[in-house]
Design brief:
Blueprint: H1 3-14, E1 22-27, E2 36-43, H2 48-60, E3 65-68, H3 70-75, E4 77-78, E5 81-82, H4 86-94, E6 98-101, H5 114-132, E7 138-140, H6 148-154, E8 160-162, E9 166-167, H7 177-190, E10 193-198, H8 212-222, E11 228-230, H9 233-245, E12 246-252, E13 256-263, E14 274-280, E15 283-289, E16 296-299
Parallel strand pairs: 2-3, 2-10, 2-11, 3-6, 7-8, 9-10
Antiparallel strand pairs: 1-14, 4-5, 12-13, 13-16, 14-15
Length: 300
């Protein structure tokens, strides 16, 4: 066991000094004990996301995050790139995709006053919530630009912001089947959370000359779901934060295992179930639990 896992287990083992049958207990790095995670994210609310990207993802049972700008949606087209409508955003959200905040009008936020910055961020939150019924809990920086003030404001009321990404596209990023596969294999090998960044397929920045390269990448991802957790940016960000702030106590009762979590985060914001790997009497099991619940019981 490495130091990180040992530290995660100490609160468990300390509470079980008289219960030596529980050999180990830890919260897994990713849901269901998977080796790595991938979040597919798409910037700028381009119409291609509704007409092309989401249908391909839906057919494979995959969910993604779409970062939108309310001003672009209301204008309908910017720089010859048609945009999503609010109704499309609502439909995609109902199908399980995350519709989240990329600022109201896509400025460089580091050039704004605090008042203008807050207007850009929270006006877009309000518009997305009005359209989808869900208030965004993540944020994507326009142009990847941030400073201390921007990061502070954009983190308010959120489980995470996109601070790093793997650019995918062919006009600018020159993605190939080989480069996409190599990136994914590296993510899995290193046990990372890989976050992609794509824009439009036929419109917008960094388009695809051969869109089938992206569809094949989706299929490759879907085929690895036994080892890779593929989910929205919000889901993975929340899970990772909860893992860092949650401890568990495990007890062996006569006919069941009791698991009692403790988490110091806001349960109104963090809502992802966690996975515990528990070894009792030489048998290791994965148990899914509510990090904010009371003691939960599992059959032996």
């Amino acid at each position: 066991m490495n130091l990180r896992l040992l530290l995660m287990s100490l609160p468990v083992l300390a509470s079980l000094s008289a219960c030596s049958v529980v050999e180990d207990a830890r919260i897994t790095e990713y849901r269901d004990g998977r080796k790595a995670a991938v979040s597919l994210t798409f910037d700028d609310g381009i119409l291609d996301h509704y007409t092309l990207v989401a249908p391909h993802l839906d057919s494979l049972g995959l969910r993604a995050t779409f970062w939108v700008n309310g001003n672009s949606i209301e204008q309908g087209e910017i720089n010859y790139a048609p945009r999503l409508t609010w109704e499309m955003c609502r439909e995609m959200s109902e199908r399980g995709h995350e519709i989240s905040n990329h600022s109201w009008s896509h400025p460089n936020l580091t050039n704004l006053s605090e008042e203008a910055l807050r207007e850009e961020v929270f006006k877009n939150d309000d518009a997305i919530e009005a359209a989808t019924g869900k208030r965004p809990i993540t944020f994507c920086y326009p142009f990847n630009a941030q400073n201390e003030l921007v990061a502070q404001v954009c983190h308010e009321g959120r489980v995470g912001t996109r601070d790093y990404q793997e650019a995918q596209g062919q006009v600018n990023s020159h993605s190939t089947p080989e480069s996409l596969r190599a990136w994914l294999e590296k993510v899995v090998e290193n046990g990372e959370w890989g976050v992609t960044m794509s824009h439009g397929i036929h419109h917008g920045w960094d388009q695809w000359n051969d869109e089938t390269v992206l569809w094949d990448f989706f299929k490759d991802l879907a085929s690895r779901q036994d080892t890779v957790w593929i989910d929205t940016f919000a889901a993975v960000a929340a899970y990772r934060a909860e893992r860092e702030h949650c401890t568990i106590r495990v007890r062996k009762y006569r006919k069941c295992i009791g698991l009692k979590p403790s988490c110091d985060l806001d349960p109104a914001l963090y809502r992802e179930p966690l996975t515990a790997e528990v070894t009792v009497n030489g048998r290791t099991r994965l148990l899914t639990f509510d990090p904010f619940g009371h003691e939960q019981y599992f059959e032996k």
